Structures are given as C-alpha cells and as structure tokens.
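batch job 7 of whatever, protein = Uracil phosphoribosyltransferase
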Amino acid sequence: MKAFFEGIQYLFVNILFAPLDFLRSLELSSWFAANTINWIFMIICALAMVYWIKQLKIFEDAGTEKQDTTAHSFLK
C-alpha cells in the first residue's frame, strides 16, 4: 500500500506539477513570461464578458426578454 501512495506522490510531484515548477523558476528571470497563462485567461474572460453583454443588448432591443417578477411560476 505504501508503494501505491508513493506512486501517486511521484505522479503529482515529478510529472503533473513540472510545468508549474518551470513557471516558478521562470518568474525569477521574467515576471511577464511567468504570468503569460494568467494574461491569456484574463483576455479570454474579458472577451467572453463582452460577447455576453452584446447578446444581452440584442435580446433587450428585440424585446424578447421578460423582466417582470412573475416570469417564473414560483414567484407568483
């Protein structure tokens, strides 16, 4: 049983966390390069939010969005 848990430890520490260890060592030389993944995720989230707001505006302009409080039967 001990070998099983040591195998799990080896998998996570030496294989799955290797990219994160690389980013941690890269931070000492270049902060911007180490945080590239964060910048990519922030850009994706910003684009998704802009798309969502544009879609809300399209439905509001078309008048198909119900905004009254009785839109659902459990609110009556």
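notes: Residues 1-61 form one domain.
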